[in-house]
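User: Design a sequence. Structure:
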């Protein structure tokens, strides 16, 4: 990955941070996108630099097409190409489906699904043969999780979009895939009622005997970005320690 140009959206903390640091470990040229958490982005950037990466921060609201366009123009200006796009940025509203407002729906769909289309469209312009587009999903895309309706539907849309983009970009040597992660003990669980209790139940049910870590997810993303994954196209790779295998 040395000298490859990598952009990670939502890269300031959690899974996005772990993904960025995994590429930094191989001395990639790393763009970290963030929306509000400037402090977290700067800390991640400092750690990535300490690993030998060249790092650039870019603040952008991915619900805004103009801000997305500006971000990719900056990548193009600096390097003339983008090798890997990791679409990790996500937002959520934890409410029962019938309690969602139109504003909630538009916010979540815009951040989680629409932005993948806009980012992929901009990335593909300067992405060479061997380019990679990798997005992050969750088990809520095809399973019903309480209070998760808006996020689950947005992730289902993201997974479907992955297949369409993959078919269109494959002739150019660009792969498009998604990593669907099980429960990872990130800050998001603090926003969910009984989040710690839910995590404990997931831990007990998982055949592998533990929860995922952000680094587990990052390793799968890194593999999908490698030359060895060239023939993996349009797939949703589940990484959950076996949790979803059980009835």
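Assistant: Done.
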């Amino acid at each position: 990955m040395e000298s490859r140009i990598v952009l990670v959206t939502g890269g300031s903390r959690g899974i996005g941070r772990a993904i960025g640091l995994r590429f930094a470990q191989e001395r990639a040229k790393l763009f970290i996108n963030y929306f509000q958490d400037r402090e977290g982005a700067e800390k991640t950037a400092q750690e990535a630099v300490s690993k030998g990466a060249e790092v650039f921060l870019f603040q952008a609201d991915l619900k805004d097409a103009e801000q997305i366009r500006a971000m990719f123009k900056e990548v193009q200006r600096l390097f003339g190409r983008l090798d890997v796009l990791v679409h990790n940025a996500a937002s959520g509203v934890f409410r029962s489906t019938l309690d969602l407002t139109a504003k909630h729906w538009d916010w979540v769909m815009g951040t989680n699904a629409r932005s993948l289309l806009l980012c992929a469209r901009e990335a593909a312009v300067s992405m060479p043969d061997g380019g990679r587009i990798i997005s992050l999903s969750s088990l809520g895309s095809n399973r019903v999780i309480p209070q998760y309706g808006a996020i689950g539907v947005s992730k289902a849309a993201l997974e479907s979009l992955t297949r369409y983009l993959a078919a269109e970009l494959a002739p150019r040597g660009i792969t498009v895939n998604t990593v669907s992660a099980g429960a990872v003990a990130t800050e998001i669980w603090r926003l969910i009622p009984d989040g710690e209790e839910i995590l404990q139940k997931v831990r007990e049910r998982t055949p592998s005997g533990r929860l995922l870590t952000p680094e587990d997810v990052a390793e799968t993303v890194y593999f999908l970005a490698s030359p060895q994954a060239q023939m993996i196209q349009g797939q949703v790779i589940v990484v959950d320690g076996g949790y979803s295998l059980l009835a």
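The CA atoms of residues 164 and 234 lie 8 Å apart. The mean pLDDT is 94.
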